[in-house]
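User: Predict the structure for this protein chain, please.
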Amino acid sequence: MRITILAVGTKMPDWVTAGVNEYVKRLPREIDLQIRELALAHRGKNQSTATAISDEGKRMLDAIDEKDWVVALDLSGKPWSTEVLSQQLDRWKMDGHNITLLVGGPDGLSPDCIARAQQKWALSALTLPHPIVRILLAEQIYRAVSILNNHPYHK
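Assistant: Here is the predicted structure, written as structure tokens:
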């Protein structure tokens, strides 16, 4: 199963890459976790936020494999515990889905991206910096896999 974190924003600090890679290397071979970055749309005095969100959304939609199960990380989504994430992961695996997790830019996801998603997940009610979100997702995917494999990491 491939899980892609499709995130707006590039040039993350080295500690982000190191953090994500730490959890990626711990995952079993049947889980291929990838980060795919898209550049932020230009934001300036003469460009509306809506235009930037739309541009990011179009590029994000173009980057999604049409067969993937898409989960939008959005405040309007449902909050999932780690146990619920593990159940989702198990269901996706049983259904044979590859997963794409959408992480929007500083102004969020476009309405078209949210409409494309089969599920919406509210990662937290907190405002989280994008670098932290990547590490948090990688760690929680590892933790969910650990639950499914009865590994003591979750405790």
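The chain is about 45% helix and 20% strand.
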